[in-house]
Amino acid sequence: MNGLRLARLSDLNEIMDVVKDAQDFLKLQNSGQWQDGTPSIATIVEDSMKGRFYVWVEEGIIVGIIAILDYDKDYDHLKSGQWRFPAPYLVIHRFAVKSDYHSQGIATNILKAVEDFAQERNIGTIRIDTHEKNIPMINLLVKNGFEMCGEVMIEGIKPRIAFDKRL
Known about the structure:
By secondary structure, the protein is α+β, with helices and mostly antiparallel strands.
């Protein structure tokens, strides 16, 4: 079955293949994002055990990954700007699609699945952040109706551009 499903621990090798591919892709853009070893295996296992890590499957192959959280303390305060919509919200983190599958609409389909998930839970807002040099992600977010809200500091040290979207 193609589409989004909860990750299983047995998916870990394929998930880490997607992570490595994304790290390589981001490095080519001179982006510091994911160049520090994040997301780590430990983070992905924790997300999976908490039921908040998902994989996108095409023809039996994991080609995309995403974590969907209910809250992020780093989002309590933006360094600059402001969120357009109040809580509750879902947070997207650890979002990547294998580069061999770029430009096929998969990332947009993943975002639509997250929107459906939010609406099923009566949550009307999605928040996400990305590195300023991650132009493909910025373009994807804008194309899918997200708007830039300002800058957020991840883990207190990583500046990222913050986006939100009202469903």
